[in-house]
Design goal:
The chain is mainly alpha-helical. The protein folds into three domains: 116 residues, no CATH class; 80 residues; 98 residues, no CATH class. Helix content is 50%, strand content 10%. Strands 1-4-7 form a three-stranded parallel β-sheet, with helices on one face. The protein has a two-stranded antiparallel ribbon with strand order 2-3. β2 and β3 form a beta hairpin. α8 packs antiparallel against α9. The longest helix has 17 residues.
C-alpha cells in the first residue's frame, strides 16, 4: 500500500528491514576521520547506503520495525524523533512510515516500550471486503476468486489464512490455469497456501459453482431476456442458488459505488432487474435500501416506479 502511494504521488521510496541489521554500524554507519583545515581531525559516521540523499518529498519505509533486535530498536528511536542519527540527518520533507505486527498474537516480535510507542502515530489496518475486491479486480485476480471472498469473508481468520495468503493462492490457481475440484492439484495448492478450513471452503465453492456470474457492467447492459434467463438458472432446481444471486447483487452495489454516473443503458438494465417478477422480494428490498443509503443519483430514476418507491418509503 505504501509503495503504491509513493508511485501515485511520484515520490521516491526507500525501504529498510531493520531485522536484518546485525551491528549498530548497519544503523548509524561506519566511522571515518574528517580532516579539518587547522590540521585536526574529527571522528564522524558515514551515512549508510539506505539513507536517502536527495531532498523530498519522499517516504522512508521501515518495514517490520519491531522484528529488529532491541538494541537496534533503541537506536532507531532517535531517527523518528530527531530525524537524525549520529553525524547525519534525514533530508528535508522525507516522511518516516513504519510497519509492524502486534505483540502477543503468535508473531515473532520484539516488545516495544512506551517511550517508543508514544513517539509515533498508530493506524491499525483491518481487512475490508469491498476494498480488497476493488483492488483484486484491478490486479486481474479471477472473478471466481473474488466472489468466493465476498461470500466467505469469515474464511480470513487472521492466522494462516489472511488476505495476503488468499491472494497468493488465487495467483497460484490462476498460474496453473485454474484447476477445478476434479484435478487433485487444486487441493494441493489450496492446502499448501491457506488454512485447512479456507482451503476446503474454496474447493467446495468451486465444486458447487455450476453457473458463472457475469460482471456487474455486463449484467446491467444485458437484455431483459438475458437477465431473466440468468435468474431462472440460479433459482430453479432442487437447490436454488440464492447465495450466487446475493453475490450478483453485491457486485452491482460495488459497481454503483464506483460509478456515480451510469450510462442510460445501465440505468435501464438496473430498473428492469429490480422489477423482474423472478427477483425474490428480500433481494429487491436489500438492493433498494442499499442504493438509498448510498444516495446514488440513480435512486431518483428508480423511485419513479411505485413498487420500488414503496420499498424505500415504507
Amino acid at each position: 500500500m505504501i509503495l503504491a502511494l509513493a508511485q501515485e504521488k511520484g515520490w521516491p521510496c526507500r525501504v529498510i528491514s531493520p531485522a536484518q541489521f546485525e551491528e549498530m554500524g548497519d544503523l548509524i554507519g561506519l566511522p571515518y576521520l574528517d580532516h579539518q583545515e587547522d590540521g585536526s581531525a574529527l571522528s564522524r559516521f558515514a551515512p549508510p547506503e539506505w539513507i536517502p540523499r536527495g531532498a523530498g518529498p519522499g517516504i522512508l519505509l521501515i518495514d517490520d520495525f519491531n522484528r529488529a533486535d532491541d538494541r537496534i530498536l533503541r537506536g532507531l528511536m532517535a531517527l523518528w524523533q530527531e530525524r537524525r542519527l549520529s553525524s547525519w540527518a534525514l533530508p528535508q520533507d522525507w516522511y518516516i512510515l513504519l510497519t509492524g505486527n502486534p505483540e502477543g498474537q503468535q508473531y515473532s516480535v520484539t516488545p516495544v516500550d512506551e517511550a517508543t510507542i508514544s513517539r509515533m502515530l498508530h493506524l491499525e489496518l483491518v481487512f475490508e471486503v469491498d476494498s480488497w475486491a476493488k483492488w483484486a479486480k484491478r490486479e486481474g485476480i479471477p472473478q471466481k476468486a473474488i466472489e468466493f471472498v465476498r461470500q466467505h469473508p469469515e474464511s480470513i481468520d487472521g492466522e494462516q489464512t489472511t488476505a495476503r495468503t488468499l491472494t497468493f493462492l488465487f495467483r497460484l490457481w490462476q498460474q496453473y490455469r485454474q484447476p477445478m475440484p476434479s484435478d487433485p492439484q487444486l487441493a494441493l495448492l489450496a492446502h499448501s497456501a491457506v488454512g485447512p478450513q479456507a482451503a476446503a471452503a474454496f474447493v467446495a465453492y468451486l465444486a458447487n459453482e455450476s453457473i458463472p456470474l457475469p460482471s456487474a457492467v455486463d449484467f446491467l447492459e444485458a437484455s431483459l431476456a438475458t437477465q431473466t434467463s440468468l435468474l431462472n438458472d440460479l433459482l430453479s432446481g432442487d437447490l436454488p442458488r440464492v447465495d450466487r444471486l446475493a453475490t450478483l447483487g453485491q457486485n452491482i452495489l460495488h459497481y454503483l459505488k464506483a460509478h456515480p454516473d451510469l450510462a442510460p443503458q445501465q440505468t435501464t438494465g438496473l430498473e428492469q432487474f429490480l422489477l423482474l417478477p423472478e427477483l425474490p422480494a428480500d433481494q429487491r428490498l436489500v438492493l433498494m435500501h442499499a442504493i438509498s443509503k448510498e444516495g446514488h443519483p440513480v435512486l431518483g430514476q428508480l423511485l419513479r416506479h411505485a413498487e420500488l418507491s414503496r420499498l424505500v418509503l415504507g
